Amino acid sequence: MDDNINVNGFEEEELQQQEQQGEQQQQQDEDKLIRVKFITKLPVELQVPETPIALPIKFTRFGLSEVINHLLDIKPQRVFDFLINGEFLRVSLQTFITKNKIIDEETVLEIEYLEALPKPEETEEKKIEDWISCIEAGIGNNQSDYLINSGYDSQIRIWKYSPKNGSNCEPAISFIAHEEPIITFKVISKDLNNNQFQLITGAKEAVIKLFNVNLTDSSSKLEKIFIGNQDSTSCLSISPSKSRFAAGGWDNHIRFWSLNDNTNQTSNSKRTRTNNKQATQITEEHVIKAHSQSVSSLKWIEESKIISTSNDQTIRVWDIESSIPVATYNSTKAIICSDVSFDQNLIATGHADSIIRLWDIRAKDGSIVKQTFLTHKMWVHGIAWHPTLNYFVSCSYDNTVKIWDLRSRVPLYTINSHEDKVLSVAWHDNNTFVSGGADGKLKIHKINNL
């Protein structure tokens, strides 16, 4: 019995020694220093000497930010972000180095710093009686700016909003456009000097409509009805020349109509519900049997080519005249939405598995995903690239809006202010974006100093 007690005592002592050694090793690792050199593209007054300095390897971006503030003697302090090999630092230096195997003990680690993106602020909220399905913003000139939303109450709402002039978002005009919920719309042309818009609308019905809107007398006039769809319209896209448009929907086809006058008019006219004047009915001029399931998004990339995405898990680039796909990108999940960055030749797609995937539209191998973004929890329903920078925003059925930088695998910010599914997001200008969804709330978010 005594022998057993002694053995157990030795085992306990050995375990204690191992724990102590582990703690000492952990402390030694945390006390390790690494030589780093800071570089930046910021103005001269925000540049530190590029002489290598030794810093604790346990530092995260917050500790590095304090170092930059100390070296520059900045008061009040600013928040900086850090890039290593083109990727944002979101863990400790030690974890990043171990994971990426990018350095040995003798190497000087080069770290680029830049000012962190400021946290978005919600500046306004407008409550609508039904779901907000689609938003288009940034419509303006030097005098006035407007944003537009469509809803499941079948209405188009136009708002006057000029943040650069310090004005609040105020309703300009609203009108009923369809008998069923509106899913999508596009502004074709605008003459803001005369306070006029022209837009097309698609809904949970087969027809697409074109309206002339006059903001001066708050009038809307149905001018044309485009027929040919066999089911609901889910997406619209205007050609670069604005001479025609394409629509996709639940009949799995892409259909094209001319926007020029006196083209493919039917012999029948139809009186509108809003006035006693006749609207011209126009049939499609071209049809592509595009997908095996519904078409979820369209983007015209040049006059002769258009990109489509679908619930059949594919992205296709079409030569319109021949109706032949010149490129196909195969995903593994249904594609709900997309947006194209022409500056970077990238298309970002949102999927039913909650993942955002990034594709290079110049790539010959259409099966390779360039990058994935993973933190949404449900369907990704909307994506919008920043007008000029490498950021994009996304919205989801998980009630969130997220801001992403291509150099980070995690979002820069997550906005949790919506109370239900977020269905649409759009940039109004370089500093402002707008979101809306099933909670009926149109929210305006501003990022200062972007």
The share of residues in extended strands comes to over 45%
- Identify low-pLDDT runs: 1-10, 267-276
What is the gyration radius calculated from CA atoms? 27 Å
Mean pLDDT metric: 88
Largest sheet: 6 strands, mixed
Give the spatial strand order of the biggest sheet.
Answer: 11-12-13-14-19-18
Total DSSP helices: 3
Please tally the β strands and state the result: 35
Task: Report the end-to-end length measured between terminal Cα atoms.
Answer: 75 Å
**Shape assignment:** globular
**SSE class:** mainly beta
Estimate the helix proportion, in percent: 10-25%
Task: Tell me about this structure.
The structure is a single chain. This protein has 450 residues and is mostly beta strands. The chain has helices at 2-31, 61-72, 93-100, and strands at 33-40, 53-56, 80-84, 87-88, 109-115, 121-127, 132-140, 145-151, 155-160, 170-176, 182-191, 196-203, 205-214, 219-227, 233-238, 244-249, 253-258, 265-271, 278-283, 286-289, 295-302, 305-310, 314-319, 324-330, 335-341, 346-351, 356-360, 371-373, 380-385, 391-396, 401-405, 413-415, 422-427, 432-437, 441-446. The chain has a 6-stranded mixed β-sheet with strand order 11-12-13-14-19-18, with no helix packed on it. A 5-stranded mixed β-sheet has the order 2-1-5-3-4, covered by helices on one side. It is globular.
